[in-house]
Write a structure and sequence with these properties.
Blueprint lengths: L1 H14 L5 H16 L3 E8 L2 E8 L3 H19 L4 E3 L9 H6 L3 E9 L2 E10 L7 H21 L6 H11 L2 H15 L4 H8 L3 H10 L19
Antiparallel strand pairs: 1-2, 1-5, 3-4, 4-5
Helix pairs in contact: 1-2, 1-5, 2-5, 8-9
């Protein structure tokens, strides 16, 4: 285990020199998921108080919901650099419903650059208590890599809007279609008819895309508040 941890640390230092920001984020998530045996992971950047999906691996509606709940209730602490860890979601107010069909535990790690929150690293797992103390400490090193990826994308001569456009241009079409559909459904409370109108397609097309991208359909009560907003 000690040798494995050393190798992970060496990889983390090595990958600091990578060039492609989005792939750097994705590779970092891959390594973290392998290290902690996670279910899915994501990096979110910020646009005011909104979360924007920057990079992900296996993200689904449960992950998006979990990330939004944690951000909405603990944004002040996260901005101060305090990581959030819920070893058992069923015991945390606001996260119990997610635990019924989604992950059993999750963590949200703040990514700081010069003391300012620039992104959030989200990792969850199908099993409770998936992180030990060493894992939690090591995540801070991976947060350094995420900071590099995010700040590279939004470089000093690039506006926030231009940085997001660059991210979209670099995203494979299939990946982007899935993420865009998922976020649009989330924003519109999974109203299939409304999303179909917005996209200029039929409801049948939406259903077919859900099947193609392996997105389980979620039925959301109309009273449910909106979640992540697309940029």
């Amino acid at each position: 285990m000690g040798r494995r941890a050393d190798l992970i640390d060496q990889f983390a230092d090595l990958v600091i020199g990578a060039d492609d920001p989005r792939r750097l984020g994705e590779r970092t998530i891959d390594v973290v998921l392998s290290l902690v045996e996670g279910r899915c992971g994501a990096v979110f950047t910020l646009a005011g108080d909104r979360l924007l999906l920057f990079a992900s691996r296996g993200v689904d509606q449960h992950a998006l919901d979990g990330a939004q709940v944690v951000w909405s209730s603990r944004s002040d602490a996260l901005r101060l650099g305090e990581a959030f860890y819920a070893p058992e979601l069923g015991a945390v107010a606001g996260l119990k419903s997610i635990a019924r069909q989604g992950p059993a535990s999750l963590t949200m790690v703040p990514v700081l650059q010069d003391g300012v929150l620039v992104a959030l690293l989200y990792i969850d797992a199908a099993e409770p208590h998936f992180l030990n103390n060493a894992d939690r400490d090591r995540l801070s090193k991976f947060a350094r890599i995420i900071a590099k990826a995010v700040t590279q994308t939004a470089g000093p001569k690039t506006s926030r809007a231009e940085a997001w456009e660059t991210y979209l241009e670099r995203t494979p079409v299939e990946d982007m279609e899935r993420e865009k559909l998922l976020l649009l459904l989330n924003r519109n409370e999974w109203n299939i008819a409304r999303v179909a109108r917005l996209m200029g397609v039929t409801r049948r097309t939406i259903y077919l895309r859900l099947q193609r991208h392996h997105i389980p359909r979620e039925r959301v009560p109309k009273s449910r508040p909106r979640k992540l907003a697309a940029s």
